[in-house]
Design brief:
The protein is mainly beta and about 160 residues long. The chain has one helix at about 90-100, and strands at about 15-20, 25-40, 45, 55, 65-75, 80, 85-90, 105-110, 115-130, 135-145, 150. The chain has a single domain (about 15-40, about 60-150), classed as Thrombin, subunit H (Beta Barrel).
Length: about 160
């Protein structure tokens, strides 16, 4: 009797990362807990033609997206996930992005039940992993983006 890795089994959400060649998404892990926040404040400015009055600025401050995720990653790599058909790279690729270069990569939080997703380029601001289960590790990550991101469907 053999066992096959399936980090998405029983998981509605998966966390994907683009491979180093930027040709395909790969699975970083199954997501247990996730949160996201979109911040787009509007600033008021004093109008030079009417001192003391305020009007909405054409420049609306900044826009930022933040993701926080917690989940399980398979330590074995090169295995194809039977649910999505994607290669599992586990936390190895996420660790590489989090600790080298500009700490930026293209990520996707995918709801495999609804096909809803959040996708875009994010900076990895925090990353940790731990665990005692053979073959699996827990991971936590926080990501931020000021790029244009895509949100589609129910995530």
């Amino acid at each position: 009797m053999g066992c096959e890795a399936n980090v998405t089994k029983g998981r509605q959400l998966v966390f994907l990362i683009r491979n180093a060649a930027d040709t395909a998404y790969e699975i970083a892990g199954g997501v247990k807990v996730r949160g996201y926040n979109f911040d787009n404040p509007v600033e008021d400015t004093t109008s030079s033609s009417t001192p003391g009055d305020y009007s909405e600025s054409e420049w609306t401050g900044y826009s930022q997206a933040a993701l926080t995720i917690s989940g399980l990653a398979d330590q074995r790599t090169g295995i194809t996930d039977p649910v999505t058909g994607l290669n599992i790279v586990g936390s190895a690729r996420l660790l590489a992005v989090a600790t080298t270069g500009d700490r930026c990569g293209k990520f996707k939080l995918l709801n495999v039940d609804t096909d809803g997703f959040i996708e875009g380029f994010f900076n990895v601001t925090t990353f940790s992993k731990s665990g005692d289960t053979p073959g699996l590790v827990g991971f936590d990550a926080a990501l931020q983006s000021k790029e244009a991101i895509v949100v589609s469907g129910d995530v």
